[in-house]
Target: SMP-30/Gluconolactonase/LRE-like region domain-containing protein
Amino acid sequence: MQTFTAGWKFLEGLRWRDGRFWAVDCFGGKVIAVTPQGNAETILAHDTTVSSIGWLPEGELVIVAMHDSQLLKLDASGLQHFADLSSAQRGIPNDMVTDAFGRSYIGTMGFDVQGGAPFAPGAILRVDPDGSVHIAADDLLFPNGMTFLDDGQTLVVAETFGQRLTSFRVESDGGLTDRSIWASFGPPIRDSDLPDFVPAMVFGPDGITANAEGNVWVCDPFGRKATVLGLRLNQSQKATAAARLTAERKFRASLS
Model:
């Protein structure tokens, strides 16, 4: 294992597009693209915290501006505001996934973890191509990374404080229905576990993606001593440890 790119403050929202890895430098306010050889280009430098990216059907880049509660759009004319998330949000907007129809699903934290705020559930917001904002799902325990399965018909979200992956059916209008627990790694984090919740974590799912075979890969950034765990989950209800850095513990995933 070797370092691929360095010198950034906090990278999030890794994507692959047009032969390059894309990511946001969250606290640096940047969107970057990196070639497989490690050559990095700054696509956008913004004066606020950014947390995730996606693309609309015509190729426009959309970016979540966390503390501004905005979804921004970058196209040939420049950077512009695309949607105001403040009216519907449940806490700070964070990770996002965008579907083939140009609908952006954005998870909100529910509460300010770093600021010591009391625990509150988050939500998934849906921003339609016209910029309208809707609450697609509520009462989620820190919704984080999201990915699609079944050609976009199923959305899977990592509930970090729920220590689980939750799935929804994506309806033709973009609505989310048929909520179910897709994989469970441990009991939900309780109010009494805050603010020092890390010792209570069995596996806190965060970043997530799916491959062509329908396997879901998810990482845990809260493992002891900066342990990073990768899980490969599939519909045959198996979980495999795919990668582990400075790992000191084992885990078992209970799949629904």
Observations:
- The mean pLDDT is 86.
